[in-house]
Amino acid sequence: MAARSQHGDSNGLEWVKWLDKYPPPLGTKDEDPTDLALQKQAQHTAYRRLPIDEELDLHGCTVEEAIDRTRRFIETARAKGLRKVLVIHGKGNHNNGESLLRTPVRSLLASHPGVGETGTPNRTNGGNGAVWAILRDR
Asked: Model-level pTM greater than 0.70?
């Protein structure tokens, strides 16, 4: 019986070593969804803390000009290897409190294949009158 328990212990160690060498993949069915939500929230917080590498100010642009300039800005920033950019679209204070550029610019960034995540910056970086974007690697 003593040989059996030693054999069982060595199998246990082999199993642990195997798990260390081949850990289970992320996203398995057994993962707790709240853990994934917390990880995503932590990642978003980390993105918010990244410094802004470059910014684009769209004040005075028409919607068409803003879309064109934003597309070119994103492609140029990705070519430079930048990680986080800021696009200032304005708050709409001079247009009855409604920004004409906010929705089209944010929609473009949300659907652009070169943009990963977007968010509203803090007040010192434009608040509701701007949007930051994390650029995907090429």
From this structure: no
